[in-house]
Specification:
InterPro entries: ABC_transp_permease, BCAA_transport_permease. By secondary structure, the chain is mainly alpha-helical. It has one domain (about 1-100, about 145-285). It is built from eleven helices and four strands, in the order E-E-H-H-H-H-E-E-H-H-H-H-H-H-H. The radius of gyration is 19 Å and the shape is globular. The N and C termini lie far apart (about 50 Å).
């Protein structure tokens, strides 16, 4: 069976691989959306935090002999702790200023973090072994999909949907949203808004660290792995709607699939199709697909 002259197994295999890439887009854009939606900060250092998550996991396994599963928990905590330090010492003073100041600060942090890791490890990349439990592949009928990639999709969806549920459907999420709109009113109810803001930023960058650990066995761990991805992730956030949690998840997964299918029908266009979609969406709906029109 063929689709537009292409064998069905080829189309379906690219669809599956696109879903894997879309899982990374969804998780990274989710962290960006949480930070922007709740703190109004354009966090350009998100790619560097993603890279740090992969490197912290690699160092824990290489130097300390810890397992992949231990680092899957510890690396996001380490990255989140660094995010909390950045928020308390630098970002906190920029909340009342124009978004451009936060963007410039986080861009500078990106250059600093990437420079430090480049000086120690170069740019060639470090190999990262797939955990033994997730080796092998599953026969989907049209392709053999590595078990680790299935795990990436499942873990990403679980984390993304859990985050959406907490922010949109729980009392904690209501406090977070209310704290960004009217912090003084929320403080009157006994809520420590500055602490809540700090933990929110830490959680947002911890999501990037978690995505980095998931990506490490698929791509080589390199200081440039975040900068190669962050522009696409920003495009995903813009298409979904700045600050929209659900928009980031749905758009990330959808664009990963679109990118995968483009590799079948028009491979030369696969690296730019996301930006074409962004231009079209901005022309038709400037607030994004799930964003709120002002």
């Amino acid at each position: 069976m063929e689709i537009f002259g292409y064998p069905l197994p080829m189309v379906m295999s690219q669809l599956a691989l696109g879903l894997v890439n879309g899982s990374f887009y969804a998780m990274l854009s989710l962290g960006l959306a949480v930070i922007f939606g709740l703190l109004n900060v354009i966090n350009f250092s998100h790619g560097a935090m993603y890279m740090m998550g992969a490197f912290v996991a690699w160092m824990g396994m290489t130097y300390l002999g810890l397992s992949y599963w231990a680092m899957l928990l510890l690396a996001p905590i380490v990255v989140g702790a660094l995010g909390i330090l950045i928020e308390k010492t630098m970002l906190r003073w920029l909340y009342k200023l124009d978004h451009l100041y936060g963007l410039l600060l986080t861009f500078g942090i990106t250059l600093l973090v990437e420079g430090v890791f480049r000086s120690f490890y170069g740019v060639s990349g470090q190999p990262f072994e797939t955990p033994e439990l997730l080796t092998g592949a599953t026969d989907l009928g049209f392709m053999m999909l590595p078990n680790y990639r299935l795990w990436v999709v499942a873990a990403s969806l679980l984390v993304c949907l859990s985050t959406w549920f907490v922010i949109e459907k729980t009392k904690l999420g209501a406090y977070l949203r209310a704290g960004t709109e009217n912090p003084k009113l929320v403080e009157a109810f006994g809520v420590n808004v500055p602490l809540m803001v700090t933990l929110t930023y830490g959680f947002g960058v911890a999501l990037a660290g978690f995505a980095g650990v998931l990506a490490a066995p698929i791509i080589q761990v390199s200081p440039l792995m975040g900068s190669n991805l962050i522009i696409v992730v920003f495009a995903v956030v813009v298409i979904g709607g700045m600050g929209s949690i659900l928009g980031s998840i749905v758009t990330g997964l959808a664009l990963g699939v679109i990118e995968g299918l483009t590799r079948v029908f028009y491979p030369e266009f696969s690296s730019t199709v996301v930006f074409l979609v962004m231009v079209i969406v901005l022309l038709l709906r400037p607030a994004g697909l799930f964003g709120k029109e002002k």
